[in-house]
Amino acid sequence: MTLLTPRALGRATLARQLLLDRTAAPAADVVAHLCGMQAQEPQEPFTGLWSRVRDFRPETLDGLLTGRELVRVPLMRRTIHLVTADDALAWRARHDAMLRQRVLTTYRTELAGVDPDELAAAAHAVMADGEPRTLAELVEAVSDRWPEPPRRALGELIVGGVLPTVQLPPRGLWGSRAGVRNATLSGWLGREVPPLPDDPADPVGQTLVRRYLAAFGPAASADLRAWCGLAGLPAAVKAVQDELVVFRDERGRELLDLPDAPRPDPDTPAPVRFLPSFDNAILGYQDRSRIVDDAHRGLSVAGERALLVDGRVAGVWTLSDDAVAVTPFCPLSRAERAGVTEEGAALASFLTGGTSDRVRVAAP
Questions:
Q1: How does DSSP assign 229-244, residue by residue?
Q2: pTM for the complete prediction?
Q3: Of 180, 172, 186, 182, which Cα lies nearest the Cα of 66?
């Protein structure tokens, strides 16, 4: 069984995540290929797409959101993801039990005695008029029936658990600071969420496995679980096993992959890239050693924006006073610093609408 080093895995991840070479593919196709983009920070997907798509413009994503081709929904890991409308509908029922359970586990005491199915029926009745509502408005509409649970807990169970919802624009549009207004997913898209097939081979799960490996492989089953939050995928993995090839990593884990997916030479040059907060190139794995040292593993969970140098997380960055401010973890070579400055200047210009291309690189 072929052993893949962290560097080989890292190059595979960069290739699958479109971070080795920017793509000319349409932004909607890129979001589909990536299986969505984590988006609880509404502006971050713009940077994620800019780092992957040639000549990406913010108005492109705005148009996809207002045109209902892409949606912002609670999905993988019960976090807000930017996904295609088709994927949101196809995957929502498969994530339903996980979404409910995560809320109920988080608020075990606060939601004791609340029947999720009864709450779902009540919330559906409230939203039947098609009017978007904030979380507070939704809770207010059902509070007579459930007066005791804390409003935040009850609201999260509604919009993050029992009711398939979508966060409406202008939330998520370029430069917008709009709050969250929720609509039902089926109402916004004009299509119903299909029920989960009664098939023990888990056909929806099989699609998730294939799509995940296309965007993140080679990867272990534990990585797949860490990405989607679903524990019940063994049947799906078993069903597609004969389609896959198997590798090992240096920790001895079995890694699955699609046979024809790109696995570049470990010495393939990797350009400097700037990642947004919570980018799934890092968060999409249980073992993130292919792209980030264990010492810095927590930065992505904390919402820090990562700098990639030679294919690995080498620092963090932010936008400060219209300049991209970079803090590397260790000294940069002259060539690396030049690459950081060049890519950072282009990013500053993108984020400021062309008014600034300033970059500041701090001491490590």
A1: --S--HHHHHHHGGG-
A2: 0.96
A3: 172
With CA atoms as reference, report the closest residue to 191 among 347, 337, 68: 68
C-alpha span between 77 and 203 (Å, rounded): 20
Distance CA 262, CA 49 (A): 20
β-strand partners of 360: 325
CA neighbours closer than 13 Å in the CB half-sphere of residue 329: 16
Do 178 and 165 form a contact (C-beta atoms < 8 A)?
Answer: no
Single-letter amino acid, residue 349:
S
| Cα–Cα dist 99/97, whole Å | 6
DSSP, residue by residue, 70-106: EEEEE-GGGSEEEEEHHHHHHHHHHHHHHHHHHHHHH
Burial of 282: CB neighbours in 10 Å, binned 0-12, 13-18, 19+: buried
- Give the Cα separation of 176 and 59 in Å (integer): 12
Query: Rounded distance, CA 208 to CA 205, Å?
Result: 5
Residue 276 contacts residue 245 (beta carbons within 8 Å): no
Count other C-beta atoms under 10 Å from residue 355's C-beta.
Answer: 10
Task: Please state, in angstroms and rounded to a whole number, the distance separating the CA atoms of residues 308 and 270.
Answer: 9
Mean pLDDT of 11-18: 98
Q: Which amino acid is at 299?
A: L
> What does the alpha-carbon distance between residue 279 and residue 64 come to, in Å, rounded to a whole number?
20
286, two tokens: 């249980």
Maximum alpha-carbon separation in the chain? 65
**Do residues 147 and 140 lie in contact, with contact meaning Cβ atoms separated by under 8 Å?**
no
Q: Mind listing the pLDDT tens digit for each residue in 266-310?
A: 999 999 999 999 999 999 999 999 999 999 988 878 899 999 999
Residue 1 pLDDT > 80? no
- State whether residue 111 is helix, strand or coil: coil
Q: Which two tokens stand for residue 312?
A: 């690995």
Is the bond preceding 170 in cis, omega lying within 30 degrees of 0? Answer: yes
CA distance 94 to 32: 17
On whether the CB atoms of residues 172 and 152 are closer than 8 A, the answer is no
DSSP string covering 159-178:
IIIIS-EEEPTTTTSTT---
Nearest to 290 by CA among 60, 2, 17: 17
